[in-house]
Each structure stands twice: as C-alpha cells, then as structure tokens.
TrEMBL record:
InterPro entries named in the record: BaiN-like (IPR004792), BaiN-like_dom_sf (IPR023166), FAD/NAD-bd_sf (IPR036188), RsdA/BaiN/AoA(So)-like_dom (IPR055178), RsdA/BaiN/AoA(So)_Rossmann (IPR057661)
Cofactors: FAD
Domain RsdA/BaiN/AoA(So)-like insert, first and last residues per copy: 191-340
Pfam families for this protein: HI0933_like, HI0933_like_1st
PANTHER family xref list: OS12G0638800 PROTEIN
Entry protein name: NAD(P)/FAD-dependent oxidoreductase
Recorded coiled-coil stretches: none
C-alpha cells in the first residue's frame, strides 16, 4: 500500500522547505524528502554561518537567466519583506551588512529552525535520509507513484527542489536535472557561478606569493561590472568582486579590473605628479591600493620612477593599465567551492506563476535547479523563497 500525499517535495533545502510550509498551511498533505541526514545544510553554511537570507534591494535585474522576465512574477508575489516578516515573527535578530544584505546576528541555525518549525506547524512530514529510487508516471496519469527507500508513495504533485551541483559534500546532486531531461525538459548548460577564478603559468607565478592581499577593484566582463574587494589566493583570485563577475565570465572572455575604482586614473596620476613630484610611482600607488600589489604592478607591468620623470604619454599608458588591467584567468575552482550553479531547467517550459512544468502536469521545479541564478548578496535565497512560495500556492 502506498502512502498518499497531495504534494511530495524532493529536496529539503531553502526552496523545498518554503514550498512545503506554504502548501501545508493551505491544508495540503505534504511530504518533504531529503536524502542527506538533515535539512537545510546549505542554509547552515551560508553567509559564513550567519545566512545572508535576503536582499532588500532585490529586483529581477539581480538574476541571470536565459529569460530575464521569468523570475519577475514569483519575486513580485513573495518579496524580501515577506520573508523578513517571518524572521521577525520568530524573533530572529538580524542586521544589514552592506548593500541591502541581511544576515542573522547569531546563527543560520535559527533560519533552519524557523523553517522546520513552520513546516511542523503546517503539518508537513519531513523524511531525512530518504531517496527516491523510481518514479512512475504515465502520460495521462493524474499523479506520480514513487518508490522511495522508505516505501511506496503516491502523490498528485511532485516538486523538484533538489538544488544545483555546488558543494557535492553537502548533498548536491544532479537528480533534478536528470529527472527534467527524462520528462523531456531542456536543461541549459550547467556551470559553476559565484566561484573563485584560477590563474595558471606566469599569471599565477606573478601573484601567488601575494595570497591573502585584498584590494578594492571594479571587475568588468561582457558589459557588466562589479565594484567590491578582490582577494588574491594561492590558486588565483576571489573576493566579492571576483565571485560576482565569475557568473558572467567564461574561459577566453576578456576580464578587466579597474585598480583605481572611483578615480579617473589619469587625473589621479597628474595630481600625484603635481603634489609629490619626488615620490616614486610604487610609493604613491602603494598608499592607495594594497602596498604589496602596487609593488608587484611596478615590477611586472609598469615602469617605476619618481613621478616628475614621467611624461604625459607615459602617464596615459600607466592610467590605461591601471583602469583596465587584464586579468587572464585560466578557469574557475568549480563546483567544489562555487556558491551556485548557472543554467538548469529551461524556463521556457515552466510556468512563471506556478513553477509547474508545461510538459508534465503536476510536476514542478523550484529554486536553483531552474535556470535562474542570483548575484552574491542574498538574492539566491530570495529566489528560493519566492519560487518555493509560488509552487506552494499552486500544488
Ligand atoms: C557556501 C555557500 C554559501 C552560500 N551563501 C548564500 C547566502 O548567504 N545567501 C544566498 O542568498 N545564497 C547563498 N548561497 C546559495 C544558496 O545556498 C542556494 O542558492 C540555495 O540554497 C538554493 O536553494 P535550493 O533549495 O534550490 O537548493 P539547496 O538549498 O541546495 O537544497 C537542495 C536540497 O536537495 C537535497 N537533494 C539533492 N538531491 C536530492 C535527492 N536526489 N533526493 C533528496 N534530496 C536531494 C540536497 O541535499 C539539499 O538539501 C550559498 C551557497 C553556498 C554553497
């Protein structure tokens, strides 16, 4: 005998839990299946353990997707303020770090506890350490028959909330993508996003001993730019500016760094020349950008001499290098350290208001498994909450 549910949700992460509690509140019989030993593992590790759970400035423009309009409906119907209201109801203290990013004061454990408590209050059954072995659904069927490691289950709606491929050690799997393909869905090419970039050969040799040095930059690639910190690592570069631009970069793309963000480089050099004619370039640069990095720039990419000895063409050349320094990355660190997976289930075949498959009635996709990926800064959780909520209202 199969247990019967209105909705079975596969994946007890951010999107799955939000979907489950929303459907449960509507009186639906809901089962949430998680194959790891506990739910919300990525929430626990997010934001350095403090979970950057939303961004108050969320707009559809903060997402990458082959269809930039797809995310609009769900984001409009479940806003950051809706999630903040739940956080406040649970008396979880939070603060804004920068740029609208909201973090827990204490621990991301409180966000997971809140979601689990809300699921319990809504009558959701959660099964951890449980996997789906087989799914039966014939064309014309009004539901799905699932064979799980805990027995047989019948459900009217099946929601895929199994997330992306990043951090396999936290339970990430290709389950959702494989299932989507099996049911005839197109899956757009997958790649790691919000990920450190690697350097190789002479590019790495020139920087690797500066590992740990951080400096503000504006990183530009393919018509978009992000101003924030860059961190040099022993394998390449990381830090928020690099993680952000990594989602827009692919091997071979031209990636440039403005090393004097907020300054017109030539004006700045000319004023330094006027004010400090005897100081060397590496000294004046080292007072504005990280000292060791400035020294390396002057050893490898720029000539170093007292400011008064540069003529105008030389200063123009230096300004061009400083404002548009080419970063030749060889690749990314991949899913091992990526925060998100770009690409995924093609939005063309999914309803933007309910997240239901246009191919298979009763099948839903939510969260990161869909081809919607947010910037760094709480946008990915906001998409998980909003898409989970949209499906939770529809199942
Ligand atoms: C280190 C790190 C830090 C991050 N920090 C932030 C942050 O601060 N703010 C932010 O907005 N975003 C952050 N993100 C991104 C964010 O965690 C994800 O975008 C978000 O969790 C996606 O939600 P989801 O529910 O779609 O997937 P997930 O939260 O990944 O949940 C998917 C769940 O499905 C389970 N699962 C997978 N396959 C199966 C299967 N076959 N059967 C059953 N269960 C399965 C997984 O174990 C997992 O629990 C971070 C990501 C990482 C890796």
């Amino acid at each position: 005998m199969a247990e019967v549910y209105d909705a079975v949700i596969v994946g007890g992460g951010a999107a799955g839990m939000m979907c489950a509690l929303t459907a449960g509140r509507r009186g639906r019989r809901v089962l949430l299946i998680e194959h790891a030993n506990k739910v919300g593992k990525k929430i626990l590790m997010s934001g350095g353990g403090r979970c950057n759970f939303t961004n108050t400035g969320t707009t559809p423009g903060n997402y990458l997707s082959a269809n930039p309009h797809f995310c609009k409906s769900a984001l409009a119907r479940y806003t950051p303020w809706d999630f903040i209201a739940m956080v406040e109801r649970h008396r979880i203290a939070y603060h804004e770090k920068e740029l609208g990013q909201l973090f827990c004061d204490e621990s991301s454990k409180l966000i997971v506890k809140m979601l689990v408590d809300e699921c319990a209050a809504a009558g959701v059954r959660i099964e951890t350490g449980c996997s789906i072995e087989r799914i039966a659904h014939d064309e014309g069927d009004s539901g799905f028959r699932l064979h799980s490691t805990r027995g047989n289950i019948a459900t009217t709606s099946l929601v895929i909330a199994s997330g992306g491929l990043s951090i396999p050690s936290m339970g990430a799997s290709g389950f959702g993508y494989e299932l989507a393909r099996r049911y005839g869905h197109n899956v757009l090419p997958l790649r790691a996003g919000l990920v450190p970039l690697t350097l190789s050969g002479k590019h790495q040799e020139r920087l690797h001993d500066l590992s740990g040095v951080a400096l503000p930059v504006t990183a530009s690639c393919n018509g978009i730019d992000f101003s924030n910190q860059m961190l040099i690592t022993h394998r390449g570069v990381s830090g928020p500016a690099i993680l952000q631009i990594s989602s827009y970069w692919q091997p071979g793309d031209d990636l440039r760094l403005d090393l004097l963000p907020g300054h017109d480089a030539l004006d700045w050099l000319l004023s330094q020349q006027r004010e400090r004619p005897a100081a060397e370039l590496k000294t004046v640069l080292g007072e504005t950008i990280a000292k060791r990095f400035a020294q390396r720039l002057c050893e490898v990419w720029l000539s170093n001499k007292p400011m008064k000895q540069y003529n105008l063409p030389e200063l123009k050349q230096i300004a061009a290098t400083l404002s548009s320094w080419p970063l030749i990355a060889s690749g990314t660190e991949g899913y091992r350290t990526a925060e998100v997976t770009l690409g995924g289930v093609d939005t063309d075949e999914v309803s933007s208001s309910t997240m239901q498959s246009k191919r298979v009635p009763g099948l839903y996709f939510i969260g990161e498994v869909i081809d919607v990926t947010g910037w760094l800064g709480g946008y990915n959780f906001q998409w998980a909450w909003a898409s989970g909520h949209a499906a939770g209202l529809a199942v």
